[in-house]
Every structure is written in C-alpha cells, then in structure tokens.
Amino acid sequence: MNPTVARRTVLAAGVAGAGAVALAACSSKKSGSGSATGQAAGQTSGQTVAKLADITVGRCVSAKLADGSPAIVARPSDSTAACFSAICTHMGCTVNPAGAELHCPCHGSIYDALTGAVKQGPAPKPLPKIAVHVANGDVVTT
Ligand code: FES
C-alpha cells in the first residue's frame, strides 16, 4: 500500500472518530421532528434545565422545559450559560447539537450553538432565547 494513502486513511478515520465522540458528547437523546409551534413554550421561571458542569465550555446539550418542549443549553464560557428553544424556526423540527453548531435534520439549517443565530438557512430567524442564569452550578430559567 502507498504509505501516503495509508496515512490519509488513518487520519480520515481519526477525524471521523473524533467527530463522532464530539457529537455523542453533545447530542440529544432523541432527534427528528418536533412540534411546529416555533415558540419557546413551556418556559417556567426557576426550572433547572441542566447542570453547568455537564456542559463542555463552548458546547451545548439538549434539554427539556417543564412542558416537555425541547431546548438547547449552551455554555459560552466557564461560568455562563445560554438557553434556546430547540424548535427550528423554519418548519418546527427539533435541532440537534453538533459540536459548536445545531443542525436541523429536516432541511439542513445550521445554527450557532452558543447564540442560536442562523449560520445556514433555510431557517429565517434565530432560535428563540430562553432566559437562564447559573445558581449553585445549576442552569435555571429566569
Ligand atoms: S424545519 Fe429546520 S430546516 Fe426546515
């Protein structure tokens, strides 16, 4: 075997494996379509949505609000958190964490996982923000 090709093959496999690990560390239990409300419904003040320590800095996790609607909890810095509805603003599918991005499985929209901003359409607008703060290591709705 050509050593250059073999090295490329090994590197490609390593990159793919690392991507799979990152995706697993920042993935939801479920994926696929969700409700078509496009709203951050179910926002209840004082609800713990995640533990800050469970989120890698610069990444996010999937969570559920009090009414069961899907949300994303991100950790932009060591001591801060951000939360968004996980309902795609295009047609209401549930977006999934993918490293520092959120991917919609329905039509390919991509959002910034830390801000909810649209990075690639067809989503017409950012994911709705859900106000949260960090209290005793918990990410709590405000
Ligand atoms: S519902 Fe998300 S891209 Fe269409």
Would you mind describing this structure in some detail?
The chain has 142 residues and is α+β, with helices and mostly antiparallel strands. It has a single domain (3-141), classed as Rieske Iron-sulfur Protein (3-layer Sandwich), CATH 2.102.10. Helix content is 16%, strand content 35%. The protein has 1 helix and 13 strands. The strands form 4 sheets. A 4-stranded antiparallel beta sheet has the order 3-4-5-11, with no helix packed on it. A 4-stranded antiparallel beta sheet has the order 7-8-9-10. Strands 2-13-12 form a 3-stranded antiparallel beta sheet, with no helix packed on it. A hairpin with a 5-residue loop joins strand 9 (110-112) and strand 10 (118-120). It is globular and about 40 Å long. The protein starts with a helix and ends with a strand. FE2/S2 (inorganic) cluster binds at residues 88, 90-93, 104, 106-109, 122-123.
What is the assigned CATH homologous superfamily? Rieske [2Fe-2S] iron-sulphur domain
Classify the fold: give the CATH topology: Rieske Iron-sulfur Protein
Number of strands: 13
Indicate the mean pLDDT.
Answer: 78
Radius of gyration over alpha carbons? 17 Å
- How does the major sheet shape up? 4 strands, antiparallel
